[in-house]
Amino acid sequence: MTKILFITSTRIGDAVLSSGLYQYLVDHYPDCAITVGCGPLAAPLFRGAPGLERVIVMAKRKGGGHWINLWRETVGSAWDLVIDLRGSGTSWFLRAKSRVVKRKAASALLEDGTPAHKVIEASRVLKLTSPAAPLLWLDERAKETADLVMPKDGPVLAISPAASAPFKEWPQHRFSQLAQSLTHDGALKNAKVVVLGGPGDEAAAELAVRGLEPSQVVNLTGKLGILETAACLAHAHLFVGNDSGLMHLAAAAGIPTLGLFGPTDERLYGPWGAKTAIVRAGGSADEEDRKTLRFSEASLMGDLSVAQVHQAAQTLIEKAPSI
To answer: In what side-by-side order are the strands of the sheet with 52-57?
Structure first.
């Protein structure tokens, strides 16, 4: 048995983007027993993961207490391999035959000098020749929940109008306008609109469906766990949402995924996969503009029109069947 400690992110999106590395370990070490160290939001993602021995939930504590707790939980084991994607000092104080600790440095660069996507950056930690694509491990509980709550017939448009920071959010009322245009005479005619989000996103969800027929809407905001939400996304025909963890879940589920970007850099955090696309508020930006945007909390998302998003969604839907 190969004992592996895999330390990954607190955030859902970052944990999804590095999920391909976990699967690489499973494929490379068929006899593995993997312990995952991650934040409480990301922990449920690993519930159905193959090769999993346990998950150590690292709830943030003052003075780095969560790292001390991780050390206490893992110091008694002799690890064959420790992989630390968070670049912590904890990994160096564990017994391990081999360890790989991600450097805390600036984003990785491509050959042309532009920033590499976070999937590529994570894959380089293990020196993989090809990027390890994100994926989901949906267990039966998650699938059964999705089967119960998702619409049974016809197309489904999934939207997620909230984000981790207000400056990353497209105005919520525009989601309603977009849903009307796509489902009335657009590429998802007569589609049901499923609204997804976590606890605290309820107000944004209500604004995002205002004006739609109640019979057309299935509002699941705040009602599902993260793995159940992922299973619901797997039933959808299109996802449209802000730069968020749910956007990365949708892309990993393999459905057409349109990410809405403004202040954040889509080259690093865009949805990953062949059936994905982004539309960016403000159009193209040079490197100096992006440096400014990266540290700005001023939202640009209001510059993104419904017509722009509608056209990007139509194009993605038309392209997706041929991919």
So the answer is: 52-57, 32-38, 2-7, 79-84, 96-101
